[in-house]
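Project outcomes to date are best conveyed with an example. Our students and postdoctoral researchers have been running inverse folding experiments weekly, and each run begins with a structure described purely in tokens. The record below, which covers 398 residues, was selected by the lab manager from last quarter's runs and is presented without edits.
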């Protein structure tokens, strides 16, 4: 199937591994770019991060590498580096997350690549960047959550700092990398020149600290763990109903009046303790008692549906299987099925050039022969740096 989408004119060499880089590559591939995933001889390590597995690759890998074509090249060998340069010759984007200094040691650093391919957009995902006090150090999502302060504001009130239960830093780093690529490509349309982009887990982790950093800038107070409560908004927390917890996110007085009406206690909105958001914050514990006393008469599901249709932002606390089974999830095309593969859809919806899903994540080195043929490259010449080739694709030595 010929890819379609807003990026269908682009070719991307994705030499990244694990999460941030591959997620960026999948975003570009979902929107039409021809993304060639280039793996080392041992493969992307996330292929083994299971169970569960599909066709020998873990679900972790499956979730980040849809719509890509896969090859394997040993870039540590001179012939492998020559092959990479051949692939980059007509590429628009080079995406990688090699340890800082590795490409430079191989003669493939930013300056060398820009001199050889002046139109190439070179995007690097790294832990801390190439320079500075932590320059060149490795980074993984959870460790960055700790170092950047995200853990310090996540956890039960007064309890221990806790990791956010998903790789939020890696994901936002991949998103920012994709955004940076699109920015650089847009600028290239005017200048005719590519450029180097670096998105780091550290920078992205720090950028996520809203509103805690703005609060600190103004007040000098260091935030701690507050459970589900918000430091600036009230009521904004989990509240117990008759059957299950309900999360309320009430951002203004109008919504608060509607909430009080919806739970059968309209007089609560006229209580001077709760007249404004600042008042509600100062009396958050008392407000929680009042709200939960009224909400104890309601089942969670029906109350959630009633309130949100009244204009009160809220949501029942649901499990993963409940999210998948929700008809709205299906309606928004957030579940993708390609044969035995099931993945999560793109949240980016374009009206004229919509996302498309044409291929499941590649098997290891699945498309090596295909990609080599397209570039007019001889398999036998590079056979020693092409692990994973199907024997039928490898000519016998004379």
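After processing, the design step wrote out the following sequence:
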């Amino acid at each position: 199937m010929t890819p379609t989408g807003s990026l269908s004119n682009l070719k991307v060499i994705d030499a990244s591994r694990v999460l941030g880089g591959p997620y960026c590559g999948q975003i570009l591939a979902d929107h039409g770019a021809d993304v060639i995933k280039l793996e080392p001889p041992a493969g992307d390590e996330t292929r083994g991060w299971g169970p569960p597995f599909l066709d020998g690759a873990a679900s972790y890998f499956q979730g980040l590498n849809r719509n890509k074509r896969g090859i394997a090249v040993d870039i540590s060998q001179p012939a492998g580096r020559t092959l990479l340069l051949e692939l980059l010759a007509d590429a628009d984007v080079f995406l990688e997350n090699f340890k800082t200094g590795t490409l430079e040691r191989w003669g493939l650093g930013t300056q060398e690549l820009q001199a050889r391919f002046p139109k190439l957009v070179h995007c690097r995902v790294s832990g801390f960047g190439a320079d500075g006090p932590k320059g060149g150090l490795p980074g993984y999502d959870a460790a960055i959550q700790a170092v950047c302060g995200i853990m310090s504001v996540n956890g039960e009130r007064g309890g221990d700092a806790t990791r956010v239960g998903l790789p939020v830093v890696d994901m936002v780093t991949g998103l920012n990398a994709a955004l940076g690529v699109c920015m650089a490509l847009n600028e290239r349309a005017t200048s005719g020149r590519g450029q180097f982009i670096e998105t780091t887990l550290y920078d992205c982790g720090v950028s996520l600290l809203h509103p805690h950093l703005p609060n600190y800038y103004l007040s000098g107070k260091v935030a701690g763990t507050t459970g589900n409560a918000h430091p600036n908004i009230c009521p904004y927390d989990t509240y117990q109903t008759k059957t299950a917890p309900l999360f309320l996110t009430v951002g203004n007085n109008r919504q608060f009046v509607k909430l009080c009406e919806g739970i059968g206690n309209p007089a609560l909105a006229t209580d001077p303790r709760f007249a404004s958001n600042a008042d509600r914050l100062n009396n958050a514990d008392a407000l929680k008692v009042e709200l939960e006393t009224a909400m104890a008469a309601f089942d969670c599901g029906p109350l959630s549906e009633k309130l949100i249709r009244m204009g009160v932002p809220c949501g029942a606390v649901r499990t993963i299987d409940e999210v998948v089974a929700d008809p709205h999830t299906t309606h928004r095309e957030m579940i993708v099925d390609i044969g035995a593969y099931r993945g999560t859809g793109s949240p980016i919806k374009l009206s004229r050039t919509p996302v498309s899903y044409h291929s499941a994540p590649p098997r290891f080195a699945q498309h090596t022969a295909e990609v080599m043929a397209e570039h007019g490259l001889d398999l036998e010449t590079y056979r020693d740096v092409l692990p994973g080739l199907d024997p039928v694709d490898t000519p016998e030595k004379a």
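The longest helix spans residues 168-191. DSSP finds 17 helices and 13 strands in the chain. The training component of this project remains on track.
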